[in-house]
Specification:
seven-stranded parallel β-sheet, five-stranded mixed β-sheet, 36% helix, alpha/beta, Rossmann fold, 2 domains, Dihydrodipicolinate Reductase, domain 2, 270 residues
Length: 270
């Protein structure tokens, strides 16, 4: 039985991860953490997840419970996830990070700390989205530079970062196949008299509205035809299932920094 601790257990994703752990064989809940002062602190995490009391009380200090677990799951904020990774590396505990919005400096820290333990980090834990990453790479390889590429993402009004980490990953994957750098060719929305579209552009556009869980569409626009690939998340449960799958996979791996392409054995295929 793999024992897990969930950081951010009182949040939208945290509650779904707790729910999924409690419904999945081979993994159990050893601890739950929230920020100091959060209303979830002191409550039974099973009650928060709608599963009834499970005897695991939400605390505010990961270092106090980390030794009870083999793996940490963290879908919070970049600074919190970095702290979780530091603690995980110090205690040699595996960790799954689904947080997005890291700065370049923070990503450097992730690349330094991740290989000191076993870390799965991905902008999207959904199995479907990770298959989409592979599909759009192959489409870009076949279609080449004759087709204009636009990435459109939509999320709920509470999401703090834009574009989404998933949209960025899609854009980076396509640009990489075309021998380009997204930071150079990316166009982050358009306004005003912007002129004719350049052939090298990769457009990335963010929508924030209501309670949209997560929609991502990649458009390959040619002359006389258009191909579109779309993934729509109907609930956060698909992310939670992917995160738990990653947690079960990573605990017995060698030290290293992995992502969901590794978990799903998609690396280098296609």
């Amino acid at each position: 039985m793999v024992r897990a601790v969930v950081v951010g257990a009182g949040g939208r994703m945290g509650r779904r991860i707790v729910h999924t752990i409690l419904q999945t064989s081979g993994i159990g809940l050893a601890g739950a953490v929230e920020r100091d002062g959060h209303p979830a602190v002191g409550q039974d995490v099973g009650d928060l997840a709608g599963e009834g009391s499970v005897g695991v009380v939400v605390g505010s200090d990961l270092s106090r419970v980390v030794d009870k677990a083999e793996v940490i799951l963290d879908f919070t904020a970049p600074e919190v996830s970095l702290k979780s990774l530091e603690i995980g590396a110090e205690h040699h505990r595996a960790i799954v990070i689904g947080t997005t919005g890291f700065s370049p400096d923070q990503m450097e820290r992730v690349r330094d700390l991740g290989p000191r333990t076993r870390c799965v980090m991905a902008p999207n834990m959904s199995v479907g989205v990770n298959v989409m990453f592979k599909i759009v790479e192959e489409m870009a390889r076949v279609l080449g530079k004759d087709y204009d590429v636009e990435v459109i993402e939509a999320h709920h009004r509470f999401k703090k970062d834009a574009p989404s980490g998933t949209a960025m990953r899609l854009g980076e994957a396509i640009a990489g196949v075309l021998g380009q750098d997204l930071e150079t060719v990316g166009v982050w929305g358009r306004k005003g008299l912007v002129g004719e579209r350049k052939a090298t552009e990769v457009g990335v556009h963010a929508v924030r509205a209501g309670d949209i869980v997560g929609d991502h569409t990649v458009i390959f626009g040619g002359v006389g035809e258009r191909l579109e690939v779309t993934h729509r998340a109907h609930s956060r449960d698909n992310f939670a299932r992917g995160a738990v799958k990653a947690a079960l996979w990573v605990v017995d791996r060698p030290n290293g920094l992995y992502d969901m392409q590794d978990v799903l054995d998609l690396r280098g295929k296609g």
